[in-house]
Task: structure prediction
Amino acid sequence: METDLRALYRLMLRSRRFEEAVTQLWEAGKISGEMHLGVGEEAVVAGVAAHLRDGDSMALDHRGTPPLVMRGVNLALLLKEFLGRADGLCKGMGGHMHLFSAEHLAASSGIVGSSGPLAAGFALAAQYLHPGNVSVAFFGDGASNQGMLLESFNLASAWQLPVIFVCKDNAWAITTQSPKVTGGSIADRARAFGLNADEADGSDVEAVYTAAGGMIERARDGDGPSFLLACCPRLEGHFLGDPLRRANMLELAGPLMAAFVAQPGASVAERSYSLGTLLSLVGRTAVEKNWKRHDPLVKARRKLQSQNIDLDALETEVAAEIRLALEAALKEI
Amino acid sequence: MAEAKKMRTMSFTGAIEDALGQAMAADNRIVIFGEDVHGLRMNLYVRFGERRVRPAPISESAFLGAAVGAAMAGLRPVVEIMLVDFLGVAMDALLNEAAKLEAFSGGKWQAPMVVRATCGGGYGDGGQHEQSLWGWLAHIPGLAVVVPSTPADAGALMLTALQHDGPVVYLEHKLLSGYWLELLGSGGRTTVSYDVPADGADGPVPDTWEALPLGKAITRREGSDITMVSVAVGVHRCIEAASALEKESISAGVIDLRSIAPLDRNTICEAVSKTGRLLIVDEDYRDFGLSGEVAAILLEAGLTFKYGRVCTEGTIPYSRNLEDAALPNTGRIIAAARRLL
Result:
């Protein structure tokens, strides 16, 4: 399958620049509550979403912004939603975790794992009403321990639904490192349910595009569901203001040392293990912030530059598009 | 009960942790598990180690169900569900397992467990992360549901929950729980602010924690014209409204239920029998919930009274403006109180 890296880069860049604008609004206090970005997982989303067409559906998790941006949801409407405005995508009722676009058959939820059953349902409707259309579920490795997601693997397999389950594996479940709380391999689980399962480098958009292409074609042809595991970096923590990212060890040192010596309690060895675990988590998030070598945009851009493809016009155009959307969103009614 | 000696001042979150620390030191059957507990309960994680403070996968139905089994077999688990909204994923463990055990076993077997979760809104996270749901939970026979409104009650009710021989849902409101508000609301920003009840977020606590009796309300303010009944943040909103009404020469009393199940019928009945007016302020949903239940028990007691309620009526909006209007705010409480006079 021929890939157009420039087009894929454009999809990713629009999402990244858009979420950078969202970050500024959030930091300025114009967006309330939590803010989970899809920064770092753009290659996984772009590599899949680039295959979708009208009539295909998407079930999204708490990082629903990139898929909606890439599927062409109006950027100003999205921003207005995040700003809680009555003229936002969902009239200010949903916010970034609860985004819905009936026009794009795209729905998100803040409940981890819920995209699996929803996508299975979308796929059932497609199988029944519009054969050839497919459904995609996006979720993370953390969600792969959620019963309802695993049940939906089985359902999709048993009913041979045209659904592609896409696991954006960033190795984190909020502030817990996934391998610590995950038995076996996630891809093996999918295979065990009879899904057509494969893995792709989630920081390489062409690799994802190629792997997802086969799966989507298969689903369109009525040959059943697939599972794609794509490892990707988590560049912005679990959400903006991630406590691990902000942890002030000087402030924490007092209470932690008091806890370390408080009696009664666990053995010194157990306490040391706990303390070491906390320090390593804080250290790891600090390192990942600067994981440029895994940044899917940096990787794609380097490759395009090595092919002497001029990106100036593209990057200027995307920056202008985001600026216009911001202006439109911030303009008072 | 004698008034406990109150020396220290603590945050709401700090009080719960302090009480938990005291209880865990005294009883090694108490274990904590849930998502991210190593980070959420950092100090307890270091003090008691991972055997007793155990991070869990995002598998609520498995670890809440496991808590029931662990409780039946001798442990006293404190299970953290982060946000009460997430209980939806794992309801079987509470609804059909924990809540039924004592009845099904003819009273011969119990599951002493505490399900700890945050609840409530007011910081713009939307209707899937800001529900209260205490009425929904209290509807189920076999579950106790406690909802503290001050640091002193937060610590004491944690002990109450730990000492109870059946399942207790312990809810902490995010506007009172500074840790959670910082985590989910401000995220380190100084550009956002919330209407946090100061007396609920920080306050005096006893030197040593003692359990409160389960199902005992407290009168936060005496009043002869109207009785306001509420829990959690609503209590503080009622006190604020009562102060405003006082300027209009309206005397409003405020009862803090502290426990939804069991419900302290006597305290409510006694107060309303004197004032003849009841205003219930419930951040949980209006229909088929606590506000209707309180009216029902007063009617069953044969009282005649004027009745009003200020509740959350629909899905909580994400937009801060819409959200503030949807939640029981002081303005709505004052207006509703005036209508009863």
In short: The first strand of chain B starts at residue 6 and ends at 11. Chain B is about 40% helix and 20% strand.
